[in-house]
Amino acid sequence: MIxxxxxxxxxxxxxxxxxxxxxxxxxxxGRKAVxxxxxxxxxxxxxxxSISTLARQLADSATRAEERDRTLSYKELAAKxxxxxxxxxxxxxxxxxxxxxSEIPNTDDPELLARAKQxxxxxxxxxxxxxxxxxxxxxxxxxxxxxxxxDDSGPYTINERYAAYLxxxxxxxxxxxxxxxxxxLAEYENTGRHTNLFKECIEHFKGLPRIEQVQYPEDYVSSTxxxxxxxxxxxxxxxxxxxxxxxxTLAELLFGPINAKVGLHFFPV
Length: 269
Fold this sequence. Notes:
By secondary structure, the protein is mainly α. It is built from 14 helices and four strands. Strand 3 (39-41) and strand 4 form a beta hairpin.
């Protein structure tokens, strides 16, 4: 999607004020690709707009993501996602960790150099569970985090992509705990079903970037909808259990099978 960002600038000519419009065209996915706060008027009385280095990178990443998602099939994109995840957080990453930690952007831009250094410090802190370094991408949207993590064309260091992926993963885990925890249990105890849970999972899926959607089964929406529509009140069954020494608690019976098959029913493998 192409969006135009405009600001008014006022200059003085011969004592008279003249108002003009400066416009910059930004390529991106929706309006979230380029943070509004990263678009600034350059200089006093100037009609020139500047855009931060990160905003430019995100716009370029969005363009590449659009092309990638358009040209690759579901299975091809899923395979690419799997390969990328291994590269940035899997076995491949840890086999080459020393190389990744020493990676420096090919630039003299102090913003990029400082960000890459912070990303490496953050990743190292997270791996050792210290959590004493801030993630340089903590303030970005989920869409922007995905653009960075899955862009393997070279604009970001591996540790920067790792940092973006970790932030996205932490948000996803928080969401899963919310919907599959107290919220889901309360719904089941009141209705004997998981209707709202199914609906929320489907809506969550629809809001994911394409490269994250392909990490789910291809029939995720239809299969989850079918499960929701065919679900029956399970409370009578569970009411007859829990008295024997081998019987499990309601929560274990309800969420155990789901957690064991999260890739099939709700979440990507």
